[in-house]
Structures are given as structure tokens and as C-alpha cells.
Amino acid sequence: MYFKVRAATKEDCKEVSRMIMELAVYEKMPDQVKISHEELEHDGFCQNPFFECLVAEVPEEHKSNEGFTVVGYALYFYTYSTWKGRAVYLEDLYVMPEFRGKTCVAVLLAKLKKCKQCVRLQLSVLNWNTPTRDFYAAKGAQDLTVSEGWHFIRFDGQNLDNLANEAPKD
Ligand SMILES: CC(C)(COP(=O)(O)OP(=O)(O)OC[C@H]1O[C@@H](n2cnc3c(N)ncnc32)[C@H](O)[C@@H]1OP(=O)(O)O)[C@@H](O)C(=O)NCCC(=O)NCCS
């Protein structure tokens, strides 16, 4: 194994930010990325961090064609199931194309599994991303949209502001 998986530090945020964009390009939504590495540095490394992150790193002699040594990441945070208890939500999982198929992702997921004795790991994946859907299915994940009919709901922008503005004033 020529890579190591370790907890990201503040100094890794530029590299994580680069891979967030690579993943967004893969997901065909690069315009949606508004976060800067400075925000990652703050939000991930403040007193009550909003997320945790693992990175996969290769030694200099195995660096990528473009010269990168941080070649994959898993960014996650904790949630809570009122039915099952402690849970972890995997926001992003990414390995650079030239480093795929080398068990890097297995190590990322194994380390993630040890997080705070969580009983559940949840994530979302795009409908058309069948290689990754097949990958999760092969690892034993259930597709909850198929099996239980859950929808993934989001408020943001003006609709989120409206929620606060529409509330009766105290
Ligand atoms: C998803 C991703 C992180 C997986 O990393 P990877 O390095 O390609 O994974 P590996 O090739 O090492 O595969 C790990 C295991 O899954 C299996 N697998 C991989 N792709 C598979 C597929 N399409 N169907 C079934 N099994 C698959 C491998 O055989 C391997 O099995 P093993 O652990 O028993 O040896 C990587 O492909 C990636 O970054 N994809 C693009 C980004 C993405 O879709 N991220 C997830 C967003 S939700």
C-alpha cells in the first residue's frame, strides 16, 4: 500500500477544495461550487467544526501527473437518527481517476466506519452515476429511494430566508 489515509489538517484545505471542484466537474455541476478553501479552513477547524475530513496521500515518488500528492478525500459530519441513534453523513467521497482501483477508497471507508461508533452511514448519489451506485450496492448499501421511497429535500436561497421571514414575530 503506497498511500496513507489520515485526518485532514487546515493546511490540506486548498487540496480538498481542488478535489471538491474535480468531483463537481465529474457530477456535471461545477457552477454550484461556491465554497472557498478559506471557508473550509474556518468551518472544518473552528471550535465546533461543521465537518471532518480524511485525505488519502501518496509519497512524492507516486505523485499525480499534475504533481499532486493528496489524491482522495472523504468529507463527512455527524447526524442523528431518532430511530437508530448515532449516524454519519458522507457528503463527498472522491479518488482522483489515476488512483482509482487501488483500495484507497476501501481504507477511507474503513476509517470512516470507526467514527464515534455510528450505526449508520448515509449519503446521496446522482441517479445517472451508475458506476458509483453499483459500487455502493456491491458494498451492501441500500438505495432508500427504491426500497422506502424517501425524497431528498432542500431549502436554500430566498426560500430559506422566507422560512424565517414568514414566522410570526415574537
Ligand atoms: C467512488 C470512488 C470513490 C471509488 O473509488 P475507487 O478507487 O474507484 O474504488 P475501487 O476501484 O478501489 O473499488 C473498491 C471496491 O468496489 C468494487 N467496485 C468498484 N466499482 C464498482 C462498480 N461499478 N460495481 C461494482 N463494484 C465496484 C471494486 O471491485 C472493489 O472491490 P473490493 O473492495 O472487493 O476489491 C471513485 O470511483 C470516484 O471517485 N468516483 C467518482 C466520484 C464519485 O462518484 N464519488 C461519489 C459521489 S457520491
UniProtKB/TrEMBL annotation:
Highest taxon listed in the record's lineage: Eukaryota
Keywords: Acyltransferase, Transferase
Domain called N-acetyltransferase: residue spans: 3-161
Gene3D superfamilies (alphabetical): 3.40.630.30
CDD domains xrefs: NAT_SF
One Pfam family this sequence matches: Acetyltransf_1
Matching InterPro entries: Acyl_CoA_acyltransferase, Diverse_Substrate_AcTransf, GNAT_dom
GO molecular function: N-acetyltransferase activity
Annotated family: Belongs to the acetyltransferase family.
Protein name from the UniProt record: Spermidine/spermine N1-acetyltransferase family member 2b
Taxon lineage: Eukaryota, Metazoa, Chordata, Craniata, Vertebrata
